[in-house]
Write a structure and sequence with these properties.
single chain, alpha+beta, eight-stranded antiparallel β-barrel, globular
C-alpha cells in the first residue's frame, strides 16, 4: 500500500505583494527558518465528468520538491486530508488506481489541469528546533488541459500553513490569529485544484440549477437509495486501506440498500431491484466472512478476561486463540479480490445506472405522507407476526430460531423507519428508535446462541485433548443466563415498539 500521511493545513488569500508578518511572535514559535523557493510542476488527473473533483479527491503527478511523485488525497474533515504517495512514474501506480476503482470504474483518467507553482517555504520551529509547521507562499499558474475552458489559464497567490507531523493544532490557530491581524484572510477554495477548475470554467448565462427538495414519495426513496450507493462507493478505498470499521460500515450500507429495495417495492420496480438485491446479498456475505468471527472473538475474549484466575483452568486463552485462527478464512485478501473482480464492478455500474435512471413505478408520484407510512407499517406487520411466533414458543432451540427470524424483520423495519424519517419526521424517528431497541435485544440473544455453540465446541476439543472443560462449561452457563435475561426483557421492549399510538403517528 502507498505511503500515507495525514495532512492538516489551512489556506489563505494573498496577492503578489503580500508579505508574511513576523511569525516568530506566534506563541510557541522560537524561530522562523527560510527554506528558499522550490519550483513545482503538477498535473492533475480526473475523468471527463470530473468524478474525483466532485468528491473533493485530488490525484496528481508532481515533479519538483522533496516529495515528487504521484499523490492521491482523500478528504477527512475541513482542512484535513489523507495523502497517499507513490514514487514518480510515467503511469498511475496500481495501488492508487485500485483506490479509485469504485469511482472511476470503466472511465479513463486523463490530465485536466496543470499547476506550476513557485513555493517560498518557511519552517516554524520551537526553541529546541522541533518543527511546528510549514508556511509557504505559493505563486500559482494554472492551465486547463481538458473539458470546458480547455486552454484557459489563471494565476493567483496563496499562503498555505501545514501542521508538522504529530503537531499540536493549536499552532495553526495561533498562526491564523497572527495572519488575520495582518489583514490576511482564509481562502475561499479548499484546494488549488478546486480554485483552478472554478477559474478556468466558462461562466454561462442564467442561474445554476441547484438541488431541489424531495417532493414525492419517489424523491424521498431515491434520496435514501442514492445515499447508500454513495456510502458503498466512498467506503471502497477505506476497505482497501483496512481502515477501522470500514468493512462493517460497508456491509451495513449494502444491507440498508437491499432492505430499501424490499420495503419500497411499490416505488421501485422489482424487475430491476430484485437482481441487484441478490448481488448486494452476495457482497454483504463476502464482507462478513471474518466480521462475524471478530464479533464472536470479542465476546468470548471479554467473557474469559472477566473471570477470576481461580476459575480459569487449563490453557483457556491459548485454545481460544487457536480455535479462532482455525476458523478465519484469510478474508482480507479475499475481500480485495472481490473488490477487484468483475462481478463487483458490474454491481457498481448497475447501481449507478439505477441512480441515474431510476425504475420508478406509478406510486412514486404519490405524496410521501401517503406512500411511505404504508411501506413502513407493512414491514412492522411482518415484524409483529414474527414476534408473536417467537414469544409463543417456550425457551429452547425453536424459540432461538424464531427470535433470530424476528431479529432480521426488526432490522428491516428499523431501516424502513430510518428511510422515511426525512419525510415523516419525528414519528418515523421514534418508530425506528423503538424498533432498534427490539433489534438490540434480539441481536444480543442471537449472539449468545452463537457463543454457546462455540463454547460447546471448545469444551469438546478441550476434553478430547485431555484438558479440563470446566471453564468452558462455566462460560456456557453464563451465556445461557444472559440469553434468559434477554428473553425476559423482550416482552416489555416489544410492548413499547408495538404501541398503537406510535403507528398512528406515522399516518398523520
Amino acid at each position: 500500500m502507498a505511503d500515507t500521511k495525514r495532512e492538516i493545513e489551512r489556506k489563505y488569500e494573498a496577492t503578489d505583494d503580500t508579505r508574511l508578518p513576523d511569525l516568530s511572535r506566534v506563541a510557541g514559535v522560537g524561530r522562523v527558518v527560510s527554506r528558499g523557493v522550490t519550483e513545482l510542476d503538477a498535473v492533475y488527473y480526473d475523468t471527463a465528468d470530473l468524478r474525483l473533483a466532485a468528491d473533493s479527491l485530488t490525484l496528481r503527478r508532481r515533479t519538483g520538491g522533496a516529495d515528487e511523485g504521484w499523490h492521491l488525497k482523500f478528504p477527512v474533515a475541513v482542512g484535513i486530508r489523507d495523502e497517499l504517495h507513490e514514487p514518480l512514474a510515467d503511469t498511475l501506480p496500481r495501488p492508487l488506481a485500485a483506490l479509485l476503482r469504485s469511482r472511476v470504474r470503466h472511465a479513463e483518467l486523463a490530465p485536466v489541469v496543470r499547476l506550476r507553482s513557485a513555493r517560498d517555504v518557511h519552517h516554524l520551529t520551537a526553541a529546541d528546533g522541533t518543527l511546528l509547521a510549514e508556511v509557504s507562499v505559493d505563486r500559482v499558474r494554472a492551465e486547463r488541459l481538458a473539458g470546458e475552458g480547455i486552454g484557459t489559464t489563471a494565476a493567483w497567490t496563496e499562503i498555505e500553513v501545514e501542521l508538522a507531523d504529530d503537531g499540536d493544532p493549536a499552532v495553526l490557530d495561533a498562526v491564523e490569529k497572527r495572519l488575520r491581524k495582518a489583514g490576511i484572510r482564509p481562502a475561499g477554495s479548499s484546494s488549488k485544484l478546486a480554485r483552478a477548475l472554478a477559474e478556468t470554467t466558462p461562466v454561462r448565462d442564467g442561474k445554476k440549477q441547484g438541488k431541489t427538495a424531495p417532493h414525492t414519495a419517489g424523491d424521498h426513496v431515491l434520496a435514501y437509495v442514492r445515499k447508500q450507493i454513495r456510502t458503498i462507493v466512498d467506503l471502497d478505498p477505506a476497505v482497501r486501506r483496512d481502515l477501522p470499521d470500514s468493512v462493517h460500515k460497508m456491509r451495513v450500507a449494502t444491507r440498508r440498500l437491499r432492505s430499501a429495495f424490499k420495503t419500497h417495492r411499490r416505488i421501485l420496480d422489482r424487475a430491476v431491484t430484485d437482481p441487484l438485491g441478490a448481488e448486494l446479498k452476495w457482497l454483504a456475505a463476502e464482507l462478513g466472512l471474518d466480521r462475524d468471527q471478530e464479533v464472536l472473538d470479542e465476546r468470548l475474549g471479554a467473557r474469559v478476561e472477566a473471570l477470576p484466575a481461580t476459575l480459569t483452568l487449563g490453557p483457556v486463552r491459548g485454545r481460544l486463540r487457536a480455535w479462532s485462527a482455525a476458523r478465519r478464512t484469510g478474508s482480507r485478501r479475499r475481500i480485495i479480490d472481490v473488490l477487484d473482480g468483475k462481478r463487483y464492478l458490474d454491481l457498481l455500474e448497475a447501481l449507478e445506472a439505477l441512480s441515474a435512471d431510476p425504475p420508478l413505478r406509478p406510486a412514486a408520484r404519490r405524496a410521501p405522507g401517503k406512500a411511505l407510512p404504508r411501506a413502513v407499517l407493512k414491514d412492522y406487520e411482518r415484524l409483529a407476526r414474527r414476534m408473536e411466533h417467537a414469544l409463543e414458543h417456550p425457551p429452547g432451540p425453536e424459540r432461538d430460531i424464531a427470535m433470530h427470524e424476528a431479529r432480521k424483520a426488526a432490522k428491516r423495519a428499523r431501516y424502513a423507519g430510518e428511510s422515511a424519517r426525512p419525510a415523516l419526521g419525528k414519528p418515523a424517528k421514534r418508530f425506528a428508535k423503538r424498533v432498534k431497541a427490539v433489534q438490540t435485544v434480539l441481536g444480543d440473544h442471537q449472539d449468545s446462541v452463537v457463543a454457546r455453540e462455540a463454547l460447546r465446541t471448545l469444551a469438546i476439543q478441550s476434553h478430547a485433548a485431555g484438558e479440563t472443560a470446566f471453564t468452558w462449561g462455566l462460560l456456557y452457563a453464563r451465556e445461557e443466563a444472559a440469553a434468559e435475561a434477554r428473553e425476559r426483557e423482550l416482552p416489555e421492549v416489544w410492548a413499547r415498539a408495538s404501541d398503537p399510538v406510535l403507528r398512528a403517528d406515522l399516518k398523520r
